[in-house]
């Protein structure tokens, strides 16, 4: 039996490995970290609370095929994510995404329904027909005051750039509500958290007799030679020795605080900070379902301090999307180099340099591995066709 090398044991690598293993391929998965699950890795810490080690991962999707595929490996605990944005001048949190409640609180209004909110926003929005960056995108929808309160300092902290320098797509991730719906993902048909956590979920995906996982094992250029093919989720620029220069990434430093179990800041598991300090947001893991595993006096609360990847041991979390598209243009040049490699395909957030959510990584991976199998006459088995996009 011929073997395939999969670099990275996060969602992208695990989905590829599983699909290949189920078609009879022997799969060797390596990861340079000492654990599986990539940036979705979670663990129960000494306070008895499960925390997401690389920042909050809230699963949400409208893709039924992704959900059906994952349900083979886990049940989901129902959870609808909500975020409070802490506003110092109000001395409390207000809902984010901006909704009717937020607007009434910030402007001291009593707008009674969605139509009144739309009228109000039409009056404060700027007439910008074709927004060229994140600032213009927001100004065209919510005007300057809401932009400067909820988006300008946060984006400066998060990306080290001004809204004018950022692509609109980054802030377009946050919807705008005219009603009082305060869910962070109001349009998604499926939201929830894997019952036993992400590490357990990815462990189950990788648990197959044809899959072998080697941790604390860095990729080496000589490795693919011994394999029929390599699916590689490592940063594509690193693979090519940064020959064209480094692709920019943002990273996060995590600051953990042990708080009494009764501690609360607002009512939501996640609180975003609108001030111009160093922190973007705080996660109170104990407020996520299934995240308190043992009784105890304390719980961990985690604050995030964004920084560049080179300021944090080259820990890459977010590809940077600027309004001039420069990082994507550099990535396109790396992709051209990659197309000349006949036995390697780059996958996942770092391999394809895209700001992908978990469901998008899983969908991208299912499509990529099934296309690869189909080229070799190995169509998805009947059991799995429901997750096939072709
Ligand atoms: N954003 C913001 N203020 C907020 C939340 C988000 O300015 O309170 C902007 C910011 O630029 C951020 C982007 O919207 O990077 C996307 O936010 P999201 O919550 O989707 O980021 P993620 O959860 O992926 O870190």
* Overall geometric form: globular
What is the residue-averaged pLDDT?
A: 96
**Sheet with the most strands?**
7 strands, mixed
Helix content: 25-40%
* CATH H-level homologous superfamily name of the largest domain: NAD(P)-binding Rossmann-like Domain
What Rg do the Cα atoms give?
Answer: 22 Å
Distinct helical segment count: 11
CATH architecture of the largest domain: 3-Layer(aba) Sandwich
Please indicate the percent range of residues in DSSP E strands (runs of 2 or more): 15-25%
Strand order, main sheet: write it out. Answer: 8-7-13-14-15-12-16
| Protein structure class | alpha/beta
Quaternary organisation: single chain
Text of the CATH class of the largest domain: Alpha Beta
Could you tell me which ligands this complex binds, including any ions or cofactors? Answer: uridine-5'-diphosphate
What is the first-to-last residue Cα distance? 27 Å
Count structural domains.
2
Strand elements, count: 17
Uncertain residue ranges: 382-390
Order of helices and strands: EHEEEEHEEEHHHHEHEEHEEEEEHEHH
CATH fold-level assignment of the largest domain? Rossmann fold
């Amino acid at each position: 039996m011929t073997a395939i090398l999969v670099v990275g044991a996060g969602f992208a690598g695990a989905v590829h490995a599983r699909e290949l293993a189920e078609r009879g391929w022997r799969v060797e998965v390596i990861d340079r970290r000492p654990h599986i699950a990539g940036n979705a890795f979670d663990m129960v810490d000494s306070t008895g609370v499960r925390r997401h080690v690389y920042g909050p991962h809230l699963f949400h999707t409208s893709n039924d095929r992704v959900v059906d595929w994952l349900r083979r490996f886990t049940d989901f605990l129902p959870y609808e994510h909500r975020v409070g944005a802490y506003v110092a001048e109000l001395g409390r949190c207000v809902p984010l995404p901006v909704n009717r409640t937020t607007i009434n609180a910030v402007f001291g209004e009593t707008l009674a329904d969605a139509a009144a909110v739309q009228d109000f926003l039409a009056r404060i929005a700027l007439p910008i027909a074709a927004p060229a960056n994140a600032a213009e995108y927001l100004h065209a929808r919510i005007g300057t005051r809401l932009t400067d309160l909820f988006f300008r300092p946060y984006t400066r902290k998060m990306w080290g750039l001004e809204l004018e320098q950022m692509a609109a797509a980054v802030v377009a991730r946050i919807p705008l509500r005219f009603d009082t719906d305060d869910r962070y993902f109001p349009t998604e048909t499926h939201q929830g958290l894997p019952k036993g956590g992400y590490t357990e979920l990815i462990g189950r995906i990788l648990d197959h007799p044809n899959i072998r996982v080697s941790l604390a094992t860095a990729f080496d250029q000589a490795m693919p030679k011994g394999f029929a093919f390599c699916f590689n989720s490592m940063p594509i620029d690193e693979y090519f020795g940064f020959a064209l220069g480094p692709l920019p990434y943002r990273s996060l430093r995590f600051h953990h605080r042990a708080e009494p179990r009764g501690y609360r800041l607002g009512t939501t598991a996640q609180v975003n900070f609108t001030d111009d300090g160093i922190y973007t947001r705080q996660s109170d893991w104990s407020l996520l379902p299934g995240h308190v595993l043992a009784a105890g006096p304390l719980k961990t609360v985690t604050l995030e301090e964004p920084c560049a990847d080179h300021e944090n041991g080259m820990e890459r979390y977010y590809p940077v999307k600027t309004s001039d598209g420069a990082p994507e243009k550099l990535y396109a040049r790396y992709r051209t180099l990659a197309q000349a490699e006949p036995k390697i395909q780059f996958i996942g957030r770092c391999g394809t340099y895209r700001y992908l959510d978990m469901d998008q990584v899983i969908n991208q991976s299912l499509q990529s591995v099934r296309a690869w199998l189909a080229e070799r006459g190995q169509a998805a088995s009947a059991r799995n066709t429901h997750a096939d996009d072709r």
